[in-house]
């Protein structure tokens, strides 16, 4: 695929989508609110990832670079990807140097997801883990502070334990969990901001996120509010807020409304709620909100979703984008999840089929309509 393709030319690769462009009709065109003048338009990006293992066959660094080429050609300005905690070692970090440098060379803005590996509830390990957290964010801030445009610290801490990512903490959260999350988040953000400021003379923009899948987290949920409150350092999580949350530049939501029309139509209310709740001290009383993940798998093992396909995928994403764009407070950034599948088609993977491209780089029927909808919103006056 040529790197010189413009938007019109690039979409020729999606010609096989045929009638998929009519999907716009599946998504309601909601009337914009007259109150939504805070930001002129949503900015868009895509989620992706890569692995540094020499045995990686699909999501290697060259594939990441191809994604950067394509996003630049499509005039999609942001790319979001994780720095895997197991890659924070001398032999792996040069691959991330190369990835970040390549993304920046293409004019992309970088949203980097970071974590601290295997935090522990054992009080005997607190000092050791504190030193580890400080070393990590000192290193990252000095290394990439002038290249990373947004830093995410921790991923979906409301749904993933800090000492075992594959387990859900449940709600109410276990004793000591919120205090531990707050302590290590505060340690990370203070270290990162100091390192970036000293080394590069700029401010590190920082966020963290919660998971919102309609099957478990429809609407606004207490665990999300309590989690954000705790990360912000509020002494009474879930209670009234009387001071700014200075440690977060934005509130970040991962939205998975599936094809539920009520949840899709409720997205503006959710964005407005979080923006207003954490807007104390902001110039206009609103905190920026980022939608870091918005997607639908086009293959599913769930009984209610076993017939999903790329047509359903596009319908969900487009309807959600239109709904988000209609609210009184628009999200600052929206990242459909994700650009390319993480598993080959023959694996029939639910988690591996969120991409609008197959793992071999072939566009799905969802590709063209989703891209065109993003352009439509970005190009609004």
From TrEMBL:
UniProt-listed InterPro entries: GH, TAT_signal, TAT_signal_bac_arc
Domain of life according to the entry: Bacteria
UniProt name for this protein: Glycoside hydrolase family 5 domain-containing protein
Source organism: Candidatus Woesebacteria bacterium RBG_16_42_24
């Amino acid at each position: 695929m040529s790197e010189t393709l413009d938007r019109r030319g690039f979409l020729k690769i999606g010609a096989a989508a045929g009638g998929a462009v009519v999907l716009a009709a599946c998504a309601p065109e909601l009337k914009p609110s007259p109150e939504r003048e805070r930001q002129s338009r949503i900015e868009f990006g895509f989620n992706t990832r890569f692995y540094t293992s020499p045995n990686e066959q699909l999501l290697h660094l060259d594939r990441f670079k191809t994604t950067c080429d394509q996003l630049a050609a499509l005039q999609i300005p942001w790319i979001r990807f994780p720095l895997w905690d197991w890659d924070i070692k001398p032999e792996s970090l040069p691959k991330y140097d190369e990835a970040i440098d390549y993304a920046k060379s293409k004019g992309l803005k970088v949203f980097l997801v970071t974590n601290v590996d295997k935090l522990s509830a054992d009080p005997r390990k607190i000092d050791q883990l504190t030193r580890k957290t400080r070393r990590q964010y000192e290193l990252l801030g000095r290394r990439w502070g002038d290249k990373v445009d947004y830093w995410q610290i921790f991923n979906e801490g409301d749904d993933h334990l800090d000492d075992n990512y594959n387990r859900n903490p449940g709600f109410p959260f276990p004793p000591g969990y919120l205090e531990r999350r707050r302590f290590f988040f505060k340690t990370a953000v203070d270290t990162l901001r100091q390192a970036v400021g000293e080394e590069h003379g700029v401010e590190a923009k920082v966020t963290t996120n919660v998971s919102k899948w309609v099957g478990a987290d429809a609407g606004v949920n207490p665990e999300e509010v309590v989690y954000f409150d705790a990360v912000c350092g509020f002494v009474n999580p879930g209670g009234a807020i009387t001071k700014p949350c200075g440690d977060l530049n934005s509130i970040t939501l991962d939205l998975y409304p599936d094809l539920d029309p009520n949840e899709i139509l409720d997205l503006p209310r959710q964005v407005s709620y979080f923006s207003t709740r954490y807007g104390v001290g902001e110039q206009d009383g609103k905190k920026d909100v980022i939608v870091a993940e918005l997607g639908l798998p086009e293959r599913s093992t769930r009984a209610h979703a076993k017939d999903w396909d790329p047509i359903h995928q596009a319908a969900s994403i487009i309807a959600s984008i239109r709904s988000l764009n209609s609210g009184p407070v628009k999200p600052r950034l929206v990242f459909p999840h994700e650009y390319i599948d993480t598993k080959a088609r023959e694996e029939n993977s639910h988690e591996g089929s969120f991409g609008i491209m197959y793992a071999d780089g072939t566009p799905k029927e969802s590709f063209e309509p989703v891209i065109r909808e993003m352009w439509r919103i970005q190009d609004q006056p």
